[in-house]
Amino acid sequence: MNDPARNSKERARRIERHYFKRKFALPRWRLRLTIMATIAGLSWIAWRAVAHDQSMFSSGPVDRHHASFGANCSSCHVSGGSAGATVTDKACLTCHDGPQHNDLQVSAPGCVACHVEHRGAAQLLGEGDHACTDCHSSLRTKNGHPSVATKIASFTDGHPEFKPLRDGQQDPGSIRFNHKKHFRKDLRGPSGNVQLECSDCHRAAGLRQPWPYGHEGASATVTQPVAARVGKHGPSTRAYMEPVNYYSHCSACHPLQFDKQIAESVPHRKPEEVMDFMRSRLRAWIAAHPEELQSAAGSPRIMREELNSRPRTADQWVDRHLQDAERLLWTKTCVECHSLDSIAGTEGLPRVRESNLKPRWLEHGSFDHGAHTMLDCAGCHTRARESEKTSDVLLPNINVCQSCHNPDSSSATAASNCFECHVYHDWSKEKPRHGNLGLPVS
Amino acid sequence: MNLHRDQKERDRKENVMCNPFVRTSAAIPYAVFLMMTSVVMTSAQTTPRYTGPGSCSSPSCHGSVQIRNSASVLQNEYSTWAVSDKHARSSTVLNNDISKRMGRILKVQPETSDKCLDCHKLNVAQSEQSRSFDMGDGVSCESCHGPASEWLGPHTTREWTHERSVKAGMIDARDPIRRAENCLSCHLGTEKKYVDHDMIAAGHPDLYFELDSFSAAMPKHWKEPEKDPWYELRLMTTGQAVQLRENMRRIARESAKAWPEFSELDCFACHHGLTATKDSWRQERGYEGRRPGSPAWNPSRYAVLKLILDQVDPPSAAKLQNAFDKVGPLVSDIRTDRQRIAASAEEAANVADAIANRLNTLSIDAPTALRVMNGIGAGADWISAQGERAAEQTAMVLNSLVVKYIENAKPDAAQQKQMTEGVSGLFRLLENPATYTPRRFADQLRQFARAGRVRELGNGAPQ
Q1: Which CA distances in Å does B240 have to B360, B381, B403?
Q2: Mean pLDDT throughout B35-62?
Q3: Contact A263 B156 (CB under 8 A)
Q4: pLDDT band for position A304 (50/70/90)?
Q5: Which of A354, A403, B192, B301 could lock B244 by a disulfide, CB 3.0 to 4.6 Å apart?
Q6: Of the segments A97-106, A118-127, A359-368, B86-95, which one has the largest average pLDDT value?
Q7: Which helix (H) or strand (E) holds B300?
């Protein structure tokens, strides 16, 4: 029964009596370390200050575009050159122009109100909606008569319908075109029936594949793409569709032949050039086929009119065929698509009306077809397949965009920020910069 | 009278039913009807609508300029029409000075009035237009081929046939009767489209027609599907009968309304130069079958057909003469009872209709063609006395015969030349109606008939 564990004396002996009075290593060194660290820090600061290095004040890394300034804070923090000084517009304008947004704006925020550095690329681009909505949600202008909607809080709140779709606007194009007819199932192609697709005629300007219904010899006449990248602020080369042109998109099915005997088509050019072409080809043909002038002379069929008017010389033959060709072209072939301002007759050649094709419909905001290639064309351009008239505006309505770009939607949607389509600075007013920085001295 | 009519009716039936072709062709509409009903029962009923020439003009369809070989058709039909065919410009004449003057006289707007547009353009009722209808210029594709809405799409597919298009509303222009009817709807007139004496007085030309010559004069936009080398002569003979039938129907219609309608009479009976009495061929000829002083009817659509039938189908010739011995004097008397004119013209139209159907089954061969030419030569005096319009028909009919005869029977060069020059001579005598005289025309006809072996029979009036 004499168990030591049950003995109270033995139990008391397990606890060290001076425990709380004993000093351990860390508390023993605390004071010394504090003093040492402070001295070390202060001397490091003193040393960096002596070495003119301010990078320890940085609130985050600068964007890679500004990386060349390295740790030289005063490149931007110009006021007084001391650390902590705010960045003024002057600092940015040394390298960048920031053209005014609009002549009628009542206030102009400084650069840093939108472009925040040391917070990553997105913040530097200044693409937050507040940059726009601060003013546009209750817009005031210098003249008191804003020409745009005044209560735009977001893409779905107060943004008006696209301008070309307001007030019954019409396509100003003068080329007669019936989309519906071209989408017909039994459409005759150059060899047999074809089913046309949107992309057979509409494709981003940047792509350089051959067109399915184009003409081999067309490359020489390909038009300038509308939306070639303009500086770094313009749209990409795949943003907009290449404007429709005869050689790339129409010529395979709509050749411009002018005479039964001659397979060649006339060039798709001004009537004067067309006439010269036809005359030269007809002359060459009759010179090579003089027997044509005698044929059918001995036919027993009496055609009173024709008997007296059959061409007897090559010149007469050319004139006759030229007249026929003119009748065919000016009254049928050309007017199939074009409007001619005066039909040929006694008063010379017709004038072809300006085609007025609109290369880009959203003139204010930009749109990038290249970013939407995963979508079916007709899914957005809902009216295109049924359109029968050139005057139809086939731009999708804003609600088509909003079905994906919707800030109100509870589910995840495509971005709907202002800067998806709009830019703040009016880059048409950009001025050339003349910086004053020198190359780093090595 | 009743007995007589019954007899005629029996004759007609016998005639028709003896002919196996006619019997078959009578069955065809019934078969078509049955098929149409089944189509209608299985699908929604659709009335054919006009789509306008723009629906045909794609260069890959019928609007090529050159002939293409990728289809059974030439594919440059539209361009041929647009460039060479006067039908394409039939609407542009509506704004020339003559048309404007006509408009002033008749108090109509030529370029917008249905009275003019019905023949000068593809002027169809709103209810017959498809949604994309565009009237286009002139007399265009569907004016002759019928409303396209029901066959426009399917007719480009491989297994489609002409017959199916016809079922779906296309006009069968290969059938001489159907073709003639369609041409004549403007070139002679219907109840709705009609060139009357008022219009002629205002400046519209008088209408005349001959199916084969006019088909040949039309810039050809088709391939001849017929294997029969004498097809064109069937066009000519059948066309003659159809235009006589339509002429008679027109007289029946007009006389039921008012009479005389001067456009049904011989223009030159009144419109001719005044000559010294001793030189007047009209007085010399006399006024057989009518009162002196009453303008004669225009027998041009009857006279040549009669001479053709004498050779091709004498029983029909007899029936025709029988009918016209009644009509002629009635129409040529402006004081006749209108009802009698209408009744006899109606009857004559039925006779002509039966003859048209019969002629449509008769192919003409070389000996027959020669006999017809000779027959007309033999009837030179009679036909020349029928007036300038009849002489004109004679020249056109002979031209058709000569063309086909030369082409198929291949006579020697000398005879070809004689024939061709003989016909040319006839046309020359017709250039100015004021100088027309039966004697000179008959002489020229006889000269034509002397060409080579054409002369086989003697002179003499037809029976």
Answers
A1: 11, 20, 17
A2: 71
A3: no
A4: low
A5: B301
A6: B86-95
A7: helix B300-312
Token match 């030591």: residue?
Answer: A4
Q: At what angle do helices B176-187 and B231-257 cross, to 10 degrees?
A: 40
HSE (CB half, 13 Å, CA atoms) of A363? 6
Residues B372, A93: Cα–Cα separation, whole Å: 104
The 3-state secondary structure of B381-444, one letter per residue: HHHHHCCHHHHHHHHHHHHHHHHHHHHHHCCCHHHHHHHHHHHHHHHHHCCCHHHCCHHHHHHH
Q: Cα A26–A29–A33 angle (5° rounding)? A: 115
* Half-sphere CA count of B319, side-chain side, radius 13 A: 26
Average pLDDT value over all residues in chain B: 86
Give residue ranges of A with CB < 8 Å to any B CB: 178, 181, 184-186, 188-193, 253-255, 257-261, 263, 300-304, 324-325, 327-328, 331-332, 336, 388
On the question of a cis peptide bond just before residue B260, with omega within 30 degrees of 0, the verdict is yes
Q: How far is B342 from chain A (nearest CA, A)?
A: 37
Across the interface, whether the CB atoms of A300 and B58 are under 8 A apart is answered no
Contact B399 A300 (CB under 8 A): yes
Residue with token string 């074009």: A338
Which residues of B lie inside 8 Å of A (Cβ-Cβ)?
57-61, 64-67, 70, 76, 78-79, 82-84, 132, 137, 153-154, 156-157, 216-217, 395, 399, 402-403, 406, 416, 419-420, 423-424, 427, 431
Provide the 8-state DSSP code for B219: P
Residue B177's φ and ψ, nearest 5 degrees, are: -65, -45
At A149, list the tokens: 């909607």
Q: Please say if the pLDDT value at position B461 is more than 50.
A: no
ipTM of the complex: 0.73
Joined tokens for residue B125: 């009722």
More confident residue, B104 or A191: B104
What sign does the dihedral A271-A276-A278-A279 (CA atoms) show? positive
A328 with B70: Cβ contact below 8 A? no
Averaged over A411-424, what is the pLDDT? 86
Long-range pairs for B256-259: beta carbons < 8 A, 24 or more residues apart: B256/B338, B256/B339, B256/B342, B258/B338, B259/B334, B259/B336, B259/B338, B259/B341
pTM of the model: 0.77
**Which residues make beta-bridge pairs with A204?**
A241
Give the gap in angstroms from C-alpha B221 to the nearest C-alpha of chain A: 12
Q: How confident is the model at residue B23 (pLDDT cuts 50, 70, 90)?
A: very low
